[in-house]
Amino acid sequence: MTDLQQLFADEFLLDLNGAAAARRAGYDKDCAKQMSYKNLSIPEIRDYIRARMTERSKETFVDSTFVVESLKEVHARCMQATPVMVYDAEKGDYVHKQDDMGNHIWTFDAAGANKALDLLGKHSGTFEKDNSQKAALTITMSKEEVKDISNALENSI
Predict the structure, then answer these.
(1) What confidence category does residue 136 fall into, taking pLDDT thresholds of 50, 70 and 90?
(2) In terms of domains, do 91 and 138 share one?
C-alpha cells in the first residue's frame, strides 16, 4: 500500500465517506469519487480498513450486537405512547386532551421508530433489492387435501 493509499484509508476511517477521504488525502477533487472506488476495491486497503474497524470496535465496545440492541431499545422508546396535554384554564392545569368522542389522545415518535426499523431492516437484509433472503415456500399436499381446499374455495364463492 502506498503512503497516499494509507492516508486515504486512515481518512476513510474518520467518517466512512470515500470521496471526502480521497479529497482529504490529497487526490484531485474532480476524481475523488473514482479514486475512492478504486482504492476501496484494492484487497490490501479493504483488509487494512476492516482490521482497523475491528480494532476500534474492540476498543469502544461497539459491535453489531450493541448497535442492534440499541436500535431495538430506541424503537421501543419511540413507540411509547405519551399523552397529549392541553392547558385547561378553568382547572388552571394541564389535562389529557380528548377527541370529539371523549377518547384520550396519545402521541409517539413515529419518525424515530421508523428510522430505527429502517436501520435494523438494512442490517438484517430485509430490504435487499433482489429479496434473495426470501426463500421460496414449498408446500406438499396429498390429492385429497388439494380437493378439500378446492371444494372449500368453491363453496365460499
Answers:
(1) low
(2) yes
Q: What percent of the chain has pLDDT above 70? A: 91
- CB burial of 36-51 (b: ≥16 within 10 Å; e: otherwise) equals bebbbeeeebeebbee
Is 48:9 a contact under the CB 8 Å cutoff? yes
- Grid cell digits, residue 142: 396429498
CATH number, position 18: 1.10.10.1400
75: pLDDT strictly greater than 80: yes
Query: 0.70 cut: is pTM over it?
Result: no
Do 69 and 139 fall into the same domain? yes
List the grid coordinates of 12.
476513510
User: Are 74 and 105 part of one and the same domain?
Assistant: yes
Q: Which domain holds residue 16?
A: 3-60
